[in-house]
Amino acid sequence: MTPLLKIDGVSKRFGGLMALADISFDVHEKEILGLIGPNGAGKTTIFNCIAGVYKPTSGDIVFTPGDTSIRINGFKPEKMTELGIARTFQNIRLFTSLTVLDNIRIARHCRTKANFLRSVLRTPFQKSEEKSIVEDSMRWLEFVGLASQALSDASSLSYGNQRRLEIARALATEPKLLLLDEPAAGMNPKETRILVDLIHAILDAGICVMLIEHDMKLVMSICERLVVLDHGTLIAEGGPRDIRENPRVIEAYLGRGAAGNA
Amino acid sequence: MTKGKLLLLFIGAGLLTYPLLPLSSDYVLHVMTLAMVYMILAMGLNIVPGFCGLLDLGYVGFYGIGAYTAGLLTIHYGLPFWVIVPLAALNGALWGVLLGAPTLRLTGDYFAIVTFGFSELVVLFLTNEIWLTRGPLGLPGIQPITLNLSWLNKAWYFEFYEKTPNFYIAALMVALVYFIMCRMEDSRLGRAWYAIREDPLAAASCGVNILNYKVIAFAISAGIGAVGGCFYARWSMFLSPDMFKFWESFLVLCMVVLGGLGNIKGALLGAVILVCLGEILRESLTAIGLPAETRFIAYGLIMVLIMRFKPSGFFPAVASSGRSNPLLIDLQKRLAAGAAAKEKSRDSAA
Ligand SMILES: Nc1ncnc2c1ncn2[C@@H]1O[C@H](COP(=O)(O)OP(=O)(O)OP(=O)(O)O)[C@@H](O)[C@H]1O
Ligand SMILES: [Mg+2]
Questions:
Q1: Per-residue pLDDT tens over the stretch A18-59
Q2: d(Cα A49, Cα B180) in Å, to the nearest integer?
Q3: B232: domain range?
Q4: Could you tell me if residue B345 is inside a domain?
Q5: What average pLDDT score do residues A164-175 get?
Q6: Number of separate domains in chain B
Q7: ipTM for the complex?
Q8: Which of B184, B205, B339 shows the shortest C-beta gap to A87?
Q9: Which site among B205, B211, B263, B325 would you substitute to test the A interface, given the most A Cβ atoms closer than 10 Å to its Cβ?
Q10: What whole-number distance in Å separates Cα of residue A52 and Cα of residue A177?
Q11: B216 contacts in chain A (CB < 8 Å)
């Protein structure tokens, strides 16, 4: 079976810095893949390459949402979203002066069509579309448990809720693959537990998840497979148990020599 | 809330009946009509810096394009005003696309400089292309707005030389532009603009094609500016290139900022305040022996004071017309009902 997403020899160079060097791995249907590594390893950079923010310097990214495979490197972010790749940001990027509902309604943009003329004339098509936008948005807010705050300002939400709103916004674009960049960062244990349940619910909804996370306990408990990056290179790939015992991974995290002592 | 609305309705009705009063003065009518021209301009400009967050210093260029389009079409082809309005709007929008499509990739300050250059180019063109625009001599003798209903009744052919009918036509146009603005604001289009203003990267990740929507915003804004110019041409019946100097852009921008960037009602209020202030300053400055142009110092001072004391203007709320959307009102009721039911079940459990 062709993987949902195939990263094939991807490199990304920023001036003299090799942020990613010849990275290859696959993401399969119905899977949750963990992406870990020390600070500056290149995790966010690979998300940005997949999501269309950066164009890889070399290598291929192939996405297979249905029957056909598409080589997507160099596509614009809005094109990626349309194809079915959604993402959240490491430092939350909400539309803070808008309401919670509006944040989600904007995410419905790529699945709706009303243009200038239809909006001004309020055609029956536009009206029914607006109605379904509100309904779909409320459904996603319910999914993450924020429906009751739909009409408050996004900036008034607690930190954990802002993270969940960002996830809801990504989900509202109807993705096949969801990229979560450190969703548990700054969350308290209770919020983290809710997040874990949410991620499982997302998987059950048939959406594939790629997860960057520093909280090892969290990653090891929910990911079936992990990819470890260090200094832009892929140093290990496999199940949580293998990764935990892999000497190269321990070395990357704890420094040279630590592997021997461990 | 309802009391405030009632008061507003009362004031509005009072202003609209003013021209019919026996003691109405031509001067006051003139100022009110001028204020409405600026209302149209301010609403149009509001789209670019207010909704999309891009600084546009060349708005007056589109105003000038609209005015000269109307003036020339009237003088050479004698087209009626009602045909010219959409033509001028289209011409403005066309130039908006021509300028916007290549330059809207530029960020912040660079884009502002390009728009500024564009408005200067328009003035240069109007001044130098004498074969078309008569250059600095200006375009005199533009026919006033006419209304030809002779197909209904032989006697129904009107030429609006007086102030009163022009006042009502301006009011009609303000109402029309306001209506269009409110509908755009509360639509997929308006939301895409807000997203771009708030966070372009997040907007793109939500599937908004940033460049396209910026160009659309710029074109619509330009079109509305041209409509303002179109009315101005037929109302003042005379055009000259120096009416479209950079200062006008700055003045309209002041109006939008004063009212609150991104708020339609704010743009209306800003236009009224600055037009009235301009009249007062012109009288008082000449009275104390200063040239009338010094009023721009006062505008600059106002900008500084707003930035200091009310950085988001009089009406800071953005996306406010969405609140009266029946869908959202309905949703609010549902949420309130849900919260009440929860409360009740908690009470009964306790
Ligand atoms: N736009 C950019 N220009 C230049 N260098 C960049 C850019 N983006 C990232 N880098 C560099 O690439 C390297 C990898 O960064 P990246 O953000 O991918 O790390 P990360 O694994 O996400 O780290 P963290 O865990 O801290 O989020 C870093 O050295 C960073 O400084
Ligand atoms: Mg990162």
A1: 899 999 999 998 889 999 988 888 999 999 999 999 999 999
A2: 40
A3: 25-317
A4: no
A5: 93
A6: 1
A7: 0.90
A8: B205
A9: B205
A10: 14
A11: 116
Ligand 1 centroid to Cα of residue A20, in Å, is 9
pLDDT-derived band at B310 (thresholds 50, 70, 90) equals confident
**Residue A90 domain flag:** no
- Residue A262: predicted pLDDT: 41
> According to the model, what pLDDT value does residue A172 have?
93
**Domain finish residue from A142, A157, A172:** A172
CA A140–ligand 2 middle distance (angstroms): 26
Looking at the structure of chain A, the number of domains it has is: 2
pLDDT in tens, A81-102: 999 999 999 999 999 988 899 9
Q: What is the CATH number of the domain that holds B133?
A: 1.10.3470
Dist. CA A182 → ligand 1 center (Å): 14
B322 — pLDDT class (breaks 50, 70, 90): low
| Tokens read off for A200 | 């499982």
Residue whose structure tokens are 């056909």: A68
Q: Which residues line ligand 1 (CB under 6 A)?
A: A 14, 17, 19, 37, 39-45, 90
Same domain? For A133 and A252 the reply is no
Which of the listed ranges A242-256, B8-22, B95-109, B325-339 does the model predict with the highest average pLDDT? B95-109
Q: What length does chain B have?
A: 350
Token digits of residue B12? 């509005």
Q: Are residues A159 and A48 in the same domain?
A: no
Question: Nearest residue of A to residue B208 by CA position?
Answer: A78
Q: Which atom, in ligand 1's list, is nearest to the CA of A48?
A: 18
Other CB atoms within a 10 A radius of the CB of residue A122 amount to 14
Chain B residues touching residue A106 (CB < 8 angstroms):
191-192, 194-195, 203, 206, 208
Q: Considering the entire predicted model, what is its pTM? A: 0.89
Same domain assignment for residues A79 and A179 = yes
Hey, whose CA ends up nearest to atom 29 of ligand 1? Answer: A40
What is the distance between the alpha carbons of residues B61 and B227, in angstroms, rounded to a whole number? 12
Per-residue pLDDT of B233-283, as tens digits, reads 989 888 898 888 888 898 899 889 888 888 888 899 889 988 988 888 888
Tokens coding A72 = 């997507």
| CA–CA gap between residue B221 and residue B60 (Å, rounded) | 11
Mean of the per-residue pLDDT values of chain B: 86
Whether residues A181 and A150 share a domain: the answer is no
Nearest ligand (C-alpha, residue A35): 1
Q: In chain B, whose CA is at the least distance from the CA of A114?
A: B188
Range of the domain at A259: 1-84+175-262
**How far apart are the CA of A41 and the centre of ligand 1, in A?**
7
- B-chain CB neighbours of A109 within 8 Å are 188, 191-192, 195, 206-208
Chain B residues whose beta carbon lies within 8 Å of the beta carbon of residue A98: 194, 198, 318-319
Q: Which of A120, A154, A172 is the last residue of a domain?
A: A172
Tell me if residue A72 falls in helix, strand or coil.
Answer: coil
CA distances from B326 to A226, B186, B228, B316, B332 (A): 48, 11, 31, 23, 10
